Amino acid sequence: MKISLNPATLIKRYKRFLADITLANGEETTIHCANTGAMTGCAEVDDTVWYSTSNNPKRKYPFSWEFTETKNEHFICVNTQRANQLTEEALNNQVITQITDFKQLKREVKYGEENSKVDFFMLDKNGVNTFLEVKSVTLLEGDQGYFPDTVTTRGQKHLKELIEQVEQGHRAILLFTVLHSGINSVKAALHLDKKYAELLEIAHNKGVEIIAYKASYTMENKVVDIELKQEVPVVITAS
Description:
CATH 2.40.50.580; 239 residues; single chain
């Protein structure tokens, strides 16, 4: 996936979906931030913000925060909407080796007792239903990547739904998309959401497949080429 970008400097993020930046010409403006998480370590004052521009005249804020370039030279995709787009691209290109034999692929399919929407539903060549939930990982502490970066009742619900699908005889997969260049393994953030960490271990023991793939980035002439490429380890235990 290729995205045209421009650089700016972060002033502050606020109201979850908004941030103020200083453009390259010195002008200050507000941009949209498609990220509901805490964005810990991804939104420090004076970090470099890379933003895309929408041509939609109805948008109040035409600029969208896509990536953060930190003072430690880490590159982070903070637009969580990109996680599903990258996953779909990787699935169609058969990059995710655990999922290569599907004959049907659908997005945002309702499922489960709690009326959730799974990110991807696939039917494989043997007629097996596969439910795939995608989570983006951007929290780095020390040399360890963590999910979530704050308490996520929605994420807890998704784990319960995936467990339910396995119990009904279907295949269920949780995919962590690692969107932080400094993260090389993923672990449940027990210190931030104990319930999620416990549910992740239960899900694993029940047969939910838990995998992680890391994005690679190349930048040339203000165009970033990002794609999921490398599988990285997931630490399951909640201890």
